[in-house]
Amino acid sequence: MPQHQREKTEEQQPDLSKMCKSNIMLEAVAYVNQTEVELRHMADEIALLTARVSHFEQLVKCEDCVLMKQLVSCSI
Question: Whole-structure pTM over 0.85, yes or no?
Answer without folding.
Answer: no
